[in-house]
Amino acid sequence: MTGTDVPLQPRRKGLTRRQKRSLSRGVQYVVFVAAVIAFAVAADWDRLANQFAQEDIARQMFPDVITLALKNTVLYTLSGFAVGLVLGMVIALMRLSSVGPYRWLAGVYIEIFRGLPALLIFIFIGVAVPLAFPGTEIPGGTYGKVALALGLVAAAYMAETIRAGIQAVPKGQMEAARSLGFSPARAMISIIIPQAFRIILPPLTNELVLLFKDSSLVLFLGVTLEERELSKFGRDLASQTANSTPILVAGLCYLLVTIPLGFVVRRMETKAQEAVK
Amino acid sequence: MTEKTQAAGSRPEIEVRGLHKSFGDNEVLRGIDLEIGQGEVVCVIGPSGSGKSTLLRCVNLLEEPTKGQVFVGGTELTDPDVDIDAVRRRIGMVFQQFNLFPHLTVTENLSLPQRRVLRRDKATAAKVAAENLERVGLSEKATAYPASLSGGQQQRVAIARALAMGPEVMLFDEPTSALDPELVGDVLAVMRMLANEGMTMMVVTHEMTFAREVADRVVFMDGGVIVEDGTPDQVIGNPQHERTRHFLSRLLDPAMAEVEEETSDQVGKGD
């Protein structure tokens, strides 16, 4: 008989560690299932269905909920994202600049626009800008205003993301570019920024998801029927029909876009991690 | 080697005068004077922290000298009015960490700088890229990304990238220090080829065999100054200074270093 046959530790009475672990997991499952059943039994499903799942009202929303409301939501989001990206890039570069006042200005912008609720920015764009500059029209009407408001908010967040991305590119890349004769600006554009964007693609896509939801704030600008996006469209219809089904449908339309986007982000993150290995 | 010494022109290709460099309170270079002639290969050796890499980086102004002058091909780089980007086009630089652009293929690594900096058209840049890849023996990797290459291959691509710009001078900053030992040979072979073609080269290195066989001159630095400057036979074969001897003995036979240290300590006490 060799030493390997002898258990390293004397077997104690009671459960082994593995048994304890599976017991604790089993208890968690039971509690979870019990809670779900309790809610399901307690809820008044008939009234809920009556208020949120009227098939004829839902049917009545189509095709406008897609062709008008979802389309506008996507348009607002993309235009806001575009403005935010350009502005955010400028602010990020200012933040990294060797010129003190640029850094300071960029810092102030980021602090202000990150600290204010997006709602206030929308009200400000809708009310204060026409007051301050009478007669001037923001080009593009509502679309222009939304792009500006969403862009101003997004730029503050994106500037910080872009700055982090640029700083994550190894210093040697800039040195290699400069020693090949690239000017600082050209090195930034041709070498550093393309690499930074690879790094920050997942957080930027997250920002897109946030903007997609923030586009609902458009209703504070006052929009025409043709300019309504998902939230406003759902709310209007809900008050017309005195039923909340349109809210549920609008919500599902948001998820229709945000869930795939979230999936894309996770894929990119996994791929980025694999690339590092 | 004699041919090359003759080829060295009257005007030095690289000239460093009274160079000082400090990082904060830390004075890394304390007055360097160095001339490198056309077609000359100079190896700079010395212990870590001796300032040899800083000196090399000052030669293309990746580090801004605190005091002193640097001339390359007759142009003063330390002149505040100089177009540094234009001068750098004539100076090739090879880094310890390769610094290839990871988002570009090997060919793009070679052709993008030519197109953006030298304004070469696409066809010319591609042709020059292919020629230089062939020189370093990596034509078959043209479409690969840097991450898929071994360290030695990446360094050869980095050399080709610098060569594609048609430099008059090549600077090497410990080009083999980040490589696995079995990959060092290929990189040194490429550098040897360049030396034989008459390229002016300044090489910071720990490769004593390379310095001995390829260099026209070896410069030993310690403590931010040039301690010894001469032919490889003089500096490596028959060093005049105690610091050089000490450094070389540690490098060539690390096991001997401790014995050496003790002996020199005793000698020091004796004085």
Automatic annotation (TrEMBL), chain B:
<keyword id="KW-0029">Amino-acid transport</keyword>
<dbReference type="InterPro" id="IPR030679">
    <property type="entry name" value="ABC_ATPase_HisP-typ"/>
</dbReference>
<dbReference type="InterPro" id="IPR050086">
    <property type="entry name" value="MetN_ABC_transporter-like"/>
</dbReference>
<dbReference type="GO" id="GO:0015426">
    <property type="term" value="F:ATPase-coupled polar amino acid-transporter activity"/>
</dbReference>
<feature type="domain" description="ABC transporter">
    <location>
        <begin position="14"/>
        <end position="248"/>
    </location>
</feature>
<keyword id="KW-0067">ATP-binding</keyword>
<keyword id="KW-1003">Cell membrane</keyword>
<dbReference type="GO" id="GO:0005524">
    <property type="term" value="F:ATP binding"/>
</dbReference>
<keyword id="KW-0813">Transport</keyword>
<keyword id="KW-0472">Membrane</keyword>
<dbReference type="Pfam" id="PF00005">
    <property type="entry name" value="ABC_tran"/>
</dbReference>
<comment type="similarity">
    <text>Belongs to the ABC transporter superfamily.</text>
</comment>
<dbReference type="GO" id="GO:0005886">
    <property type="term" value="C:plasma membrane"/>
</dbReference>
<keyword id="KW-0547">Nucleotide-binding</keyword>
<dbReference type="InterPro" id="IPR003439">
    <property type="entry name" value="ABC_transporter-like_ATP-bd"/>
</dbReference>
<dbReference type="InterPro" id="IPR017871">
    <property type="entry name" value="ABC_transporter-like_CS"/>
</dbReference>
<dbReference type="InterPro" id="IPR027417">
    <property type="entry name" value="P-loop_NTPase"/>
</dbReference>
<protein>
    <recommendedName>
        <fullName>ABC-type polar-amino-acid transporter</fullName>
        <ecNumber>7.4.2.1</ecNumber>
    </recommendedName>
</protein>
<dbReference type="InterPro" id="IPR003593">
    <property type="entry name" value="AAA+_ATPase"/>
</dbReference>
<dbReference type="GO" id="GO:0016887">
    <property type="term" value="F:ATP hydrolysis activity"/>
</dbReference>
